[in-house]
Amino acid sequence: MNSLSQEIAATAARMVVEEGLEYGVAKRRAVKQMGLPARTALPGNDVVEDEVRDYIEVFCAQTQAGELLALRQLALVWMTRLAEFRPYLSGAVWRGTATALSDIYLQLFCDDSKSAEIRLIDHQVRYEVSTVQGFHGETVDALSVLATAPGLNQRTCVHLMVYDHDDLRGALKPDANGRSNRGDLAALKRLIGEIE
Question: Is 125 strand, coil or helix?
Fold first, then answer.
């Protein structure tokens, strides 16, 4: 990898950790901040994730583990509440790079795409609906809820990505490095057990 790409990744990683930005947004902002042309080749997310891990190790080693645990515990609460929709945790909270500014991403695999939304309405949970790009490039509904993570004393956004039940089969494939991109309730409980 060339040094320019590595520098973009390092700059983006700082923005991910310090501002809670998603990788794509952080990479584009890094290019702009560095005064590079908009068409500059961007590093892959795996490179940015490695830089995020390095940044956390250097600048957040004292606080990040506690913040990650609080976010995983909040994810566990929501996954338990929504167990009927076969929830999977993904993103930084799953991968272990989350900080207090990170959002929680839960992927729900529903028989009926509106059933999760109806469940939130029935339990009088306030949420916002948006359309986002799914893990196969398709558009999916995202139901976003604000919740308080114990120990963080701040509101955290929990995004519930609604997928069709059949999408679950393709969701469990590991990434190029053999790491899982998501985990179910049992896998999250094992992760929390490793931390505590």
Answer: coil
